[in-house]
Each structure stands twice: as C-alpha cells, then as structure tokens.
Amino acid sequence: MLTSTVIRLRARGSGLLPRAMGEFGHAAFLAIVRQVAPDLSQALHDAGARLPYSVSPLYGGRLTGRGVQVQPDRTYWMRFTILDPGLYAVFSRYFADSSAPDVAITLGGVPFAVEELTSSAKLDPWAGYTTFAKLASSAACEPVVALQFWSLTAFSLGHGPGAAARYGILPDPVLVFDSLLRRWNRFADAPLADPNEWRQWLAEHVVVSAHRIRSESWQFRQHPQVGFVGDCTYQVVGGSAAQVRQLNALADFAFYAGVGMKTAMGMGQCRRVGRSASV
Amino acid sequence: MLTSTVIRLRARGSGLLPRAMGEFGHAAFLAIVRQVAPDLSQALHDAGARLPYSVSPLYGGRLTGRGVQVQPDRTYWMRFTILDPGLYAVFSRYFADSSAPDVAITLGGVPFAVEELTSSAKLDPWAGYTTFAKLASSAACEPVVALQFWSLTAFSLGHGPGAAARYGILPDPVLVFDSLLRRWNRFADAPLADPNEWRQWLAEHVVVSAHRIRSESWQFRQHPQVGFVGDCTYQVVGGSAAQVRQLNALADFAFYAGVGMKTAMGMGQCRRVGRSASV
Fold first, then answer.
1. Per-residue pLDDT tens over the stretch B167-176
2. Among A215, A237, A279, beta carbon nearest to B163
3. ipTM score here?
4. Given CB atoms, is B203 within the 8 Å cutoff of chain A?
5. What is the pLDDT of residues B121-138, one digit of tens each?
6. Are A139 and A262 found together in one domain?
7. Can you give the residue range of the structural domain that contains B155?
8. B48 in contact with A at a CB cutoff of 8 Å?
9. Are residues B122 and B151 in the same domain?
10. Which of B232, B237, B244, B278 would you mutate first to test chain A, the one with the most A CBs within 10 A?
11. What is the CB-side half-sphere exposure of residue A207 using CA atoms within 13 A?
C-alpha cells in the first residue's frame, strides 16, 4: 500500500519556521512513530538514507524572506507519503486511537492541533492511495509526461575527485527517472526494470521537451541546500510500448515516492500534471 | 579577430516578422557578403553547419504572440558576430564603402536603413572585439561563471535509434562548454583543450549552482524549434587553475561564438554576466 496523507493543522501558537520545514515535519513524524511503535522507530532510524516515507514542507503559511510565518488559529497543511504497509498501519493507528481534539504535533516549537487527516484523493488533490501492482497495470502508454516539482528538488552526484559534494539541480531525464526506478525497486515486491538498462534507455529515448524552472536554496539547520522547483515535460523519442508504460508508472509513482534526495525532509515533492500545465 | 557588431536599424516600412528573426538576419547577412565578395559567399554557403559567424534576432520590436511587430521610423537592432578575420574585413568594407544614408537591408520583406554600426563595447554592451589569444591570456580563474542565454538555445543530440531528432534544452555544463570548446578549436589557431578530456573534466568538476530558465519554441519557416532562455550559474568543484581558466575563457568566448545550434539563425545568443544576475 502506497499512501499520501494530507494533514490539516491549526496553529496553537505563533512562530517563524524556516522554509526547510521538512526538517521539523520529519521530527514530528518520527515522534509519532516513536510513541506508538518504538521498535519501528528504531528500525526507521537505522534505515539510513532510503526511507520508506516522504514528508512535505508546511504549506499555507505566509512565506517571508526569513521563513514561514505561522499565526495562531490559522490553518496549515502538510502531507506524509508512506511506501511501506506496516508503517502506514502504525501511522494510521496513532490517529485512530486518539480523539480528534487531543491530537497535536509540534513543529519547530510551535504547537498545532490536527484538524483533519485524509488519504482520499476525493477530499484533497495531494492525498491518495494505490499499490505498486495497480500503478504498473494501470500505467498509460503516453509518450509525453509532465511533472511538477513542487518543493526543492536535487540529486546527489557524489563527491568529485578530492572535492566537495556535487548536486544535480536540473530535471535531467536520467536523474529523475533513475531516482524513481531505484525507489520503486527498493520498496516494491518486484523490480520494474533493470537499473542499468533503464538508465541507458532514458539517455537514448527520453528528452526534455518543455520546462519552466528555477533554482532555490533552503537553509537547513546545519547547511544550505540548493535545488530547483518548477514544471518539466518529458517526451519519449522512439522506445517500445512496454518502456513507455514503465515511464508512465514511474511518473505516477512520483506522487508517493518524491524525487531525488532528502524526500523525508521536505524536498522532492512532485506530482504528474497535464500536458498544458508545464509549457 | 573576433568581433561583435551591433547594427541600429530604422524601419522604412511595417510588417509582422516571425520571432525566429535570425532566419531573415542570416539571409540579409549573406546578401551583404554576396554583394561585396561573391567567392566568399560561395565558401560560406559550402561551409555547412559550423559557420564562422552568428546572427542575432531583431531586437527592439514589440513581441506579439504571432511575431515581432515592426513599425515605420521606429529603431531596432541586431548584431552579427564574426569569428574569422577575412570575413570581418569583407563585412566592414561593405559599410565603409557606402555612405551612411544609402546603406539598407531588407528583413523578411521589410526595408531598414542602417543608422549606426559599432563594434565598440563602449558604445554598446552587445558590441566588442578581441582575439583568441587575448581571451586565453586574460581569462580569470573564477570558479563561479554565470551565463545569460539571451535567445533560444538548444543542442542537437542527434537521432535516437530509429527515431526523430533529439534536442537538449537544459543548460547542462557538458553540452554548453563542449559546444564552446568545439567552436574555439575550429576557429582558433591552436586548440584550447582536448575535446574528450574536456568533456570528462566538465562531467566531473562543473555543476550548475543556480538557474532561472524556461523553454520556448520558435517557428522557423519550415519547422518549429524548441530551446530555452534564461540565466544559469556554473560552479567548478575541484579542478586545476589551468582548467578553471579555460572555462573562464570559454565563458568570455560565448559572447562571440554563441552556444549550441543554429547560431547563424538567431539562436544561442549568450553572454557572461555577474554572479548576482543569475541567482
């Protein structure tokens, strides 16, 4: 089960939260899991960089140059996506066991009451649920695929020879759809494609056909992080129907998986959009 | 001698010229050369895709959805850059031999009088002249290099297996600085670097650190062409001083060479800008 859960939050205090809210969202998420399932919490902690969930920034606040201004009694929202059924069971039990007025989380020192929580796409366009099998079987054979990179997105390119960390901040087809394939293969029962063959196919057959993007920098607590936001349309040039469908499945999967690095820290929030939105 | 010549033009008629003005600028440029040096004209015609000059679109007109609206007695401008000293001699002789009021060119059926023609950077920021030797010797050792892609820019990626033409429309460091090196090596007395080593170095040591870009499409007479415009900042991660200086020389060279494909048709107009302009 892949789920995207939107949480509507009412602020019970005020504060200026940094734009890289995912850091606090991540902490809040881990606090919830720790409370109801300490063992799972430890397992998550040990899982390293490839986490089976993503956490969005806090949306709905007024964005200033210094961060997100939160005011009492205003409503905000964030979302968690979960790629692991066991983890989703823990997460939903926490909210099911609590009577609504008592559920609260703290983000960067500011308390919030949870007003609503939904995984239904009918109730919120950023919510939803599906399965890997359904994503694969219902994937379209559409040669034009548009993605909206909604929060800061970047790819770790490792370290250059004797040099500092390098990041990819362009929506390169190979980087984007390789990131998605690796996440799919890690969490699904069966791999969707062979990673090396997939990278080769992307390089030869998938081009960017339209975009409108800009870089941004988020100040995390310890360091700044550069990335990009915006819209990008990909087009398959040649390629078999099976591969085009794999590309479509991964584009749909982006809604749950996020794209690139630090998807548990607010980065890489992404969703598929219609053709016209990205040109 | 590398020259960038800005030509101020006063319209003697009206018309709606297509946005891909370079097609007309190219025709006007060839008409000038044909008039004063028929042999050179034939040589240019035979030179194929790698032409020793670039031609900008027409600037200064009101841009509508259908093209550039030209009105009588309004002033417009375009620029030619020339990478070959013999060609520049021909070009400048044409204007020197003519008394100013008589010099005229026709762009897409609309007649224009040439009011001013300059290669002095003091008179116009898009004008200038230099040499390959000066570019190489005066290149800075600046690890941060920002480029402004001023007109539609794209890279030909060749044809996929059994597929249509593919274009690169992201300012990928390898594509941008490989395009510049190939043009340098073609027109300079001595190559600046080995192409294969240079591509390898770019892939390992140069990343995009900031950008604000969007794709656009130009309607050429025969076909539409996709590309991008905007600002992009490159950062060297590691790398020797000699290579950083080569990168700086190529960034300066972009002003004369243009970047990517169809630089004789208005595409790929590019110049180096200060750091702050591109973030």
1. 999 999 999 9
2. A237
3. 0.87
4. no
5. 999 999 999 999 999 999
6. yes
7. 132-278
8. no
9. no
10. B237
11. 23
